[in-house]
Amino acid sequence: MPRPSQTSQPRLASGCRWGTHGEQQVVLFPEGMIRVQGTGRNILELCNGQRTVQEIVATLSERYGTADPVKITEDVSSFLEVLQRKRIVDY
Amino acid sequence: MISNPLALIAEITHRCPLHCVYCSNPLQLVATKAELSTEDWVRVFQEASRLGVLHLHLTGGEPAARTDLKELIAGGHLAGLYTNLITSGIGVSEARMAGLVEAGLDHIQLSFQDSRGEPAGWIAGAKGHTYKVALAQKIRQLPVAFTINLVVHRQNLDHIEEMIEFIEQLQPERVEIAHAQYYGWALKNRDTLLPTPQQLENCMRAVEEAQLRLAGRARIDCVVPDYYARYPKACMGGWGRRLMLIDPSGQALPCHAAGVIPGMQFDNIREHPLEWIWRESAAFQRFRGEQWMPEPCKSCDRRTEDFGGCRCQALLLTGDASATDPVCSLSPDHHLIETARSAAKSDAAQVSWSYRTSMG
After folding, report:
1. What distance in Å separates the CA atoms of residue B121 and residue B14, rounded to the nearest whole number?
2. Average pLDDT for residues B192-201, to the nearest whole number?
3. What is the pTM (predicted TM-score) of this model?
4. What pLDDT, in 10s, does the model give residues B71-118?
5. Cβ(B70)–Cβ(A16) under 8 Å?
6. How many CA atoms within 13 Å lie on the side-chain side of B56?
7. Interface contact flag, B52 A13, Cβ < 8 Å
8. CA proximity to B337, closest of B321, B307, B314
9. B169: buried, middle or exposed (CB in 10 Å: 19+, 13-18, 0-12)?
10. Are the C-beta atoms of residues B148 and B110 closer than 8 Å to each other?
């Protein structure tokens, strides 16, 4: 499975969903959960299966103001690729 | 401070149409008439959710042997738990499976005994392989996460590559290659189940190849069986630390096999709140933390990683539940494991099993 492209529409994979653990936001999946904080959470919350990677990057660029879109695209792609391999994200 | 449990393993029945020779159920099975009611289970799921539990694993026996399985899944789902069904698929029609998913099931873990029908039936002491293949294809069309679990051992490891290819065709997102664990029924059959070192090496290589080939399509997990590991596994994530198991009659156990430990009193959810059982009951406190640890665990740096290994395994192999798990290479009883491994090198000419019995 290659990296997501600009037009990929990432979403939580089948059987993966948001949950709360105490005060924390977590993503639940069959064998456990991951705590998602900071940038990772900001990315994942935008992954609704509708928005494209390009749109997600644009939203984040706007939110962070001065950040470099090329760098953000790189960060978003590698983050999604890692979660895709764990079968937590699909695109 | 005592942490909250993260997962509840609900062994909702010990009834099962299969008789697998490595079944993880205790040798003393709970009778049907002693099983908890639907209402009791749903109340436990609600209590578990309030206690911080995230995952509910519905298992057995065969959980589908309970006619109220759909109500139990709905109960877990409405309590806010991530619900996982661990099933052989036998006795579940395609329509019923679709209904379970509608009721809120998040994940199905379907077990296979082999890629081939005949040896699968031999291990399970029952037919059903062809049906499971058809059911797997149906499950793949349902909106649910899908894991296939394959138990491996000396009798099937010689065709591990074929078994992985077979599973691959059924398109699960996850694959668990699970080495048999030697408790209960599997311990009775250990001499014919424990893999040889060559088989194990070949298995780990085949798994690595498949992990590369299937990257992004299926995640494959395979852990070295603890008889061949240098250090013990962190059984249940540590005693009374992450998981609790409720047996069909409502007894709360810190580990599947804890019933074998002499002198253990298990409290029942019919009589006590789940939170009290978790925090206060004698069973959950017995091996919690480090106070009980003997040497070499007590002064070992790994004690916060593996918690001294499995208490039930220590009891079964050494006769002392407080001993260091003998699978640890530092254990004074480690020779017991070495002896078992040597026995696995020479193959028995004729295999005779102890099949898991049906309910009495």
Report:
1. 20
2. 93
3. 0.93
4. 999 999 999 999 999 999 998 999 999 999 999 999 999 999 999 999
5. no
6. 29
7. no
8. B314
9. exposed
10. yes
Kindly provide the ipTM of the predicted complex, given to two decimals. Answer: 0.86
Q: Which of A31, A85, A89 to mutate to test the interface with B (most CBs of B within 10 A)?
A: A31
Residue B211 vs residues A13, A30, A32, B25: alpha-carbon distances, Å = 19, 18, 20, 30
- Of the two residues A87 and B295, the one the predictor is more confident about is B295
Q: How far is A43 from chain B (nearest CA, A)?
A: 19
Instruction: Search chain A and give the residue with CA nearest B215.
Output: A85
Query: Which three-class secondary structure state does DSSP give residue B225?
Result: coil
Query: Which residue of A15, A86, A87 is in closest CB contact with B106?
Result: A15
CA distance readout (Å), B303 to A12, B78, B224, B242, B356: 36, 38, 20, 16, 34
* A20-77 tens-digit pLDDT: 888 889 999 998 999 988 889 999 999 999 999 999 999 999 888 877 888 999 999 9
Which residues of B touch chain A, with CB atoms under 8 Å apart?
Answer: 6, 52, 54-55, 80, 82, 84, 106-107, 109, 143-147, 173-174, 215-219, 221
**B260, amino acid identity:** V
In this structure, the strands spanning A11-12 and A89-90 are: antiparallel
Give chain A positions within 8 Å (CB) of B216: 1, 84-85
Residue pair B30/B14 in contact by the 8 Å Cβ criterion = yes
Give the closest-approach CA distance of A84 to chain B in angstroms.
Answer: 6
Partners of A34 on chain B (C-beta within 8 Å) are none
Which are the contacts of B285, defined by CB distance < 8 A and separation ≥ 6? Answer: B240
Q: Could you tell me the CA-to-CA distances from B258 to B156, B177, B211, B310, B311 in Å, in that order?
A: 29, 24, 34, 10, 8
Residue in A17, A30, A84 closest to B84 by CB? A30
Look at residue B360 and tell me whether its pLDDT is greater than 60.
no
